[in-house]
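Predict the structure of NADH:flavin oxidoreductase/NADH oxidase N-terminal domain-containing protein.
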Amino acid sequence: MNVARSDRQSVCHVVSFCSCLLRHTNQQPWLVCCWLELARPIGCRAAIRKASTVAPWVDRKAAARDYSEGWPSNVIGPSPELYSAATITPREATLQDIEKFKQDWVSAVRRALKAGVDVIEVHAAHGYLLHEFYSPSSNHRTDAYGGSFTNRVRLLIETIDLLRAEVPSGFPIMVRISATDYLEWDPSLPQFTLDDAVRLCKLLAEEHGVHFIDVSGGGLDARQKIKSAPGYQTPLAEAIRKAVQGTGCLVGTVGEITSGTQAQGILEEEKADAVLVGRAFLKNPSLVWSWADELDVDIHVASQYGWGFGMTRTHRHKRHG
Ligand SMILES: Cc1cc2nc3c(=O)[nH]c(=O)nc-3n(C[C@H](O)[C@H](O)[C@H](O)COP(=O)(O)O)c2cc1C
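Done. Here is the predicted structure for NADH:flavin oxidoreductase/NADH oxidase N-terminal domain-containing protein.
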């Protein structure tokens, strides 16, 4: 992990993936790059129904069997519902499994705090276990964790409450959700919709102390149809932002946001409080710097790099060029 920090900006690059968070402070946009996925327990990751699949660049929908280092006999989900025709049918999680998940969660949070993290994001999107529980597409349980909306969101709410009980007061709690299953093309399919997401987010913000909702979408069901386009998920964030306004909870958007100007426009039009970026960072690890130049914003860069560009500790590329 490589972390650079100052009073105005904090930059963390963590092993596999990074997001950029861009906010407006005192009329000055500022850029923060942070890792958002800290406390996902290994047990959860190993057991979800999208588990034991092959690498997505080999096949996005195929299972990994024992001979290809999968764990097909240890895949758990809320219900025995397939992710795709080729993946493993999960075993329905028992109440004991759910209790174990919660204990593992608390242990993971304690480890994260011990490691000194500044923020924890609960990953409840993209078909991971918590999303599988709250979506009626993957959850057909008949106990307290299935059926009604209240029952389906129960595990996520319990997870957040457990997290809140572990962290110091005011510690930033973020949640990543999928605000749609992208199954609208077939209204006959049970699915989690934007209306459900608005209801869930109001609950998270008003009653469960969530400070930031990171609005993403999909990843739950291989039948999803995503119409990708610049900023394609921003309308989801915008609707949720309106719903939680006045609670103090901030809302972020992600998905095909590829320029500083585009990101800045989203903030200025008050469609989101923050912009998160994935793939553009893969193409350009110095994206914060590039966007700062594009937006003519001063940022700090590591002195080890900055001196080569004639910078002082404050980045004034254009002014000192
Ligand atoms: C190679 C790759 C790996 C990703 N890994 C994760 C992940 O581990 N967790 C996650 O929540 N999203 C993951 N995503 C999704 C991104 O966080 C992001 O939501 C998505 O790529 C859309 O944003 P973008 O258009 O800026 O890339 C990944 C995306 C890519 C391309």
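Confidence is low (pLDDT under 50) at residues 1-46.
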